[in-house]
Write a structure and sequence with these properties.
This is TypA/BipA C-terminal domain-containing protein. InterPro entries: BipA_C, EFG_III/V, TypA/BipA_C. It comes from Strombidinopsis acuminata. The chain is α+β, with helices and mostly antiparallel strands and about 150 residues long. It is built from 3 helices and 8 strands. Strands 1, 3, 5, 6, 7 and 8 form a 6-stranded mixed beta sheet that branches. A two-stranded antiparallel sheet has the order 2-4.
Length: about 150
């Protein structure tokens, strides 16, 4: 069962709920070593506040998002998966600067991709040693632990 975290979720998604999965205890085995680490970093919230569509528009170009417009976030909250191996802080609480000048196409609609909603099992599988999962009645959020100085 050590390597089975998240397999049930992926199996059910792949088969659209038609798979049947059973488990049996086969005994204890010696320690087989650590698992491979993930190859992509996190998108982290730059500041605390309310997520805006304008901030999400720029952040979605950097990777896959877990947050949607109107969500409350805090600093160093994991808001998505970065395309590269390093962590990147993004400002998803940024508001669009309002001007009294209008130009052609300036007030275009923001096309946002829907966020990926993780279950508790998926969130626990996703995190690494320096990260945590926060479970509230309204949301399952992940964050990066502050470094000790």
């Amino acid at each position: 069962s050590r390597a089975m975290a998240g397999v049930k979720t992926r199996l059910m998604s792949a088969t659209r709920g038609l798979a049947v999965m059973t488990t049996t205890f086969a005994g204890y085995k010696p320690w087989a070593g650590d698992f491979d680490k993930r190859d992509r970093g996190n998108l982290l919230s730059h500041e605390s506040g309310t997520v805006t569509g304008h901030g999400l528009k720029n952040a979605q170009e950097r990777g896959i998002l877990f947050s949607s417009a109107g969500d409350e976030v805090y600093e160093n909250q994991i808001i998505g998966i970065h395309q590269r191996a390093n962590d990147l802080k993004v400002n998803i609480c940024r508001t669009k600067q309002l001007t009294n000048m209008r130009s052609a196409g300036a007030d275009e609609k923001t096309n946002l991709t829907p966020p990926t909603i993780l279950s508790l099992e998926q969130a626990v599988e996703y995190i690494e040693d320096t990260e945590f999962v926060e479970v509230t009645p309204n949301a399952i959020r992940m964050g990066k632990m502050a470094r000790k100085q």
